[in-house]
Specification:
With 386 residues, this protein is an alpha/beta fold. Helices cover 44% and strands 14% of the residues.
């Protein structure tokens, strides 16, 4: 694989799920806006979660580029899916000879990209590096740890993530040239904060949709539940919905819950009462952004939604026993309530309607993608051109 700089840096921007396409769009915007003529981008989708929502409308509405390549791997067991992605990515890397591969977060696609690129000696850039739940029973934890340890440039969105990397042996004082044996770690800020600023403005075009829901700004609770640990456990799911029902009925606060059909089916099969909750179909990205911007309180088991609650200065109850975003919990604007009905209600009483909460700039200045691209270009500055 290439080790010297070409006239342009060939960069593979690798994604495997819809949230990663949105993350990658921040890097794509930075390339188009500030590094055109210096970087040749190839946006590659493994096909890990290439669903019906990946329509032309999705890309047009968000003004983001469609993938240049879709490997079409699809769903499957962790081993089979990851193996197929490694095989196809290896072929792609041989054909396209990228100078660098950019990976996001903790999906199987991220792990496959890391294995394929590392063994072909292609420098890896890991965005969202250093994030840890400290629960290795979660496949995402395995993916993120292993990806970090074969990366050349590691960009942590938080101080906590940066400190995690230092504890695992990464040396902040490393000097160039950087490679897999001499990696560089950064506290960079979060590209999703870049995106929230960008998409927050676009989301206002969804106001007519919002008005049909019949709720007022800062006068409703937004709830999202999708993790298997909650949806596939009848006791946990029932406890969560008992609390949501109480919020809606006993406290007269509307609860809006965009749920996937799988979760709705679980409610029906388990005969869990949800009559008082406004269950709606899965929201589009911009619809979800507008709900987050206008809710008074967010209750979620999603890692991404936890952060977005902070971006939009909204308190959050986390339906998990732990979180990667520990700074939110330490700040007191996010509470770990797990699937405990009592804790959910206590959290609701503690955070709903509060106007005295503080939301520090944990996640940068909204220019993280540009910072990352500048560091990527520096990786090749001292290499001779051929």
């Amino acid at each position: 694989m290439p080790s010297s700089r070409a006239s342009m840096i060939r960069l593979v921007n690798l994604v495997g799920a819809r949230p990663q396409i949105i993350k990658a769009s921040a890097i794509s915007r930075a390339i188009r806006g500030h590094f055109a003529g210096k970087v040749e981008e190839l946006l590659v989708h493994t096909g890990q979660h290439y669903d019906r929502e990946m329509s032309q409308v999705f890309f047009e509405e968000l003004r983001i580029p469609q993938p240049d390549v879709n490997l079409g791997v699809g769903s499957g067991s962790h081993g089979r899916q990851t193996a197929q992605m490694i095989e196809k990515l290896e072929t792609l890397f041989f054909e396209r000879s990228p100078h660098v591969v950019v990976l996001y977060g903790d999906t199987n696609s991220t792990l496959a990209g890391a294995v394929a690129a590392a063994k072909l000696h292609i420098p890896i850039v890991h965005i969202e590096a250093g994030m840890r739940s400290f629960d290795k029973k979660m496949p995402e934890e395995i993916n993120r740890v292993m990806t970090d340890h074969v990366s050349t440039l590691l960009f942590s969105p938080t101080i906590a993530g940066f400190k995690n990397l230092v504890r695992e042996g990464f040396a902040p004082e490393n000097s160039p040239p950087y490679d897999i044996n001499n990696p560089k770690i950064f506290h960079s800020g979060d590209i999703m904060y870049d995106n929230s600023l960008y998409f927050g403005e676009l989301a206002e075009q969804k106001r007519p949709w919002m008005e049909k829901l019949g709720v007022e700004d800062d006068r409703f609770v937004l709830a999202t539940i999708h993790r298997e640990a909650n949806t596939d456990d009848p006791q946990r799911l029932a406890a969560i919905f008992r609390a949501l029902e109480s919020i809606a009925t006993d406290h007269h606060v509307p609860v809006i819950a965009p749920l996937h059909p799988r979760t709705r089916k679980a409610l029906e099969e388990q005969r869990i009462d949800h009559a008082a909750i406004r269950i709606i179909p899965p929201a589009s990205f911009l619809e979800m952004t507008l709900l987050e911007k206008t809710a008074a309180l967010i209750i979620t088991d999603s890692g991404g939604v936890q952060k977005e609650s902070h971006f939009f200065h909204k308190p959050c109850l986390v339906l998990r026993p732990h979180t990667e975003w520990v700074e939110l919990v330490k700040n007191g604007t996010a509470l770990l309530v797990d699937a405990d009905e009592k804790k959910i209600m206590e959290g609701f009483h503690k955070l709903y309607g509060r106007s005295d909460l503080s939301f520090p700039s944990f996640y940068g200045d909204g220019k993280t993608a540009r910072f990352i691209m500048e560091r990527i270009l520096e990786l090749f500055e001292d290499e001779p051109e051929k």
